[in-house]
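Example record

The entry below shows one chain as it appears in the dataset: sequence first, then structure tokens.
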Amino acid sequence: MTEDPRQRVERVAGARRARLTPAPGTDPSPDVETSDAAASVPVKDQGPNDARLRQDVPPHY
């Protein structure tokens, strides 16, 4: 009986979470390049309360 290649769990020293290896036959690179400019909201789409909502910090429980 042959085993199909599978993802493995790798422990990362000093990290709280383990990491999975890429699944066989997949491309681990992201689909779209991300940048800080893409994450910012255009000025024309901002409402009157957006600046306040971005400054508010949720309570710590």
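Notes for this example: The CA atoms of residues 43 and 53 lie 15 Å apart. The mean pLDDT is 78.
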